[in-house]
Write a structure and sequence with these properties.
CATH topology of the largest domain: Butyryl-CoA Dehydrogenase, subunit A, domain 3
Oligomer: single chain
CATH architecture of the largest domain: Up-down Bundle
CATH class of the largest domain: Mainly Alpha
Largest sheet: none
Shape: elongated
């Protein structure tokens, strides 16, 4: 792993990279690579797309370098995050479009909205899946691939809040729960979403994510502990 650059090293590398110095640009890329990898992981998408997202992040960083000015009063990595995420999301949309997942996911959103209106409540995953002509496991896999689970749309997280509270009441706004969820690792988010927003068992979650039930149990326990800490 490349060493982080201090402010003066970063400014010098930026200036040289702007003049076309490939070695300086590579130094900036290597210094930012740990951040790029974390951002790719936070998108919560399939591991098969991770390398593609990292490459997109590098492109976003290079675009940011060309537009960055020290007078903006911030470090390059802070300035570059929107550029890197923008390129990653474009790459993700392109990859998902190629598999047809985006179109299927949009269909699921339409089915869920229709069912919500008919039932007067948030529909369960198997109800949405049935309305779209697929089984629950296929629907859940699609949510994982898309990286934007239906389960967070219009849900107040009541089941998860009850679990976190245990014997005590937790007085927390639903938006605080969503913010805390965003602090979890991608795998922790997927497990919590499938377990508490989609009411899947640990065994079903393990089968879907290609893990053992014991691994899912550990991930779930770790995620719940982190959420309790964040919401305390």
């Amino acid at each position: 792993m490349a060493d982080a650059l201090d402010v003066h090293e970063e400014q010098d590398a930026i200036a040289r990279a702007k003049r076309g110095d490939c070695e300086a640009m590579e130094r900036l890329i290597e210094a930012a690579r740990p951040l790029i990898i974390r951002l790719a992981g936070r998108l919560g998408t399939a591991a098969s797309l991770r390398d593609e997202l990292i490459q997109a992040g590098v492109i976003g960083l290079m675009q940011a370098v060309r537009r960055f000015s020290p007078e903006q009063g911030t470090r390059l990595t802070t300035y570059a995050v929107p550029w890197m995420l923008g390129e990653m999301k474009r790459a993700l949309r392109s990859a998902l479009d190629a598999t047809g997942a985006l179109e299927k996911h949009s269909e699921m959103l339409r089915c869920e909205a229709s069912l919500r209106e008919q039932l007067g409540r948030a529909p369960r995953l198997e109800e949405v899946a049935g309305a779209c002509g697929m089984d629950a496991q296929q629907a859940a896999q699609l949510e994982v691939m898309a990286g934007t689970p239906l389960s967070m749309e219009g849900s107040d997280g009541e089941a998860l809040l009850r679990t976190l509270a245990g014997e005590e009441d937790i007085d927390v706004e639903r938006v605080a729960l969503r913010m805390a969820m965003n602090e979890l690792e991608a795998e922790e988010q997927r497990v919590v979403l499938l377990r508490y927003y989609r009411d899947m068992t640990q065994q079903e979650t393990a089968r879907l994510l290609g893990r053992s039930q014991a691994q899912i149990s550990r991930i779930e326990r770790r995620a719940l502990d982190r959420l309790r800490t964040l919401l305390a």
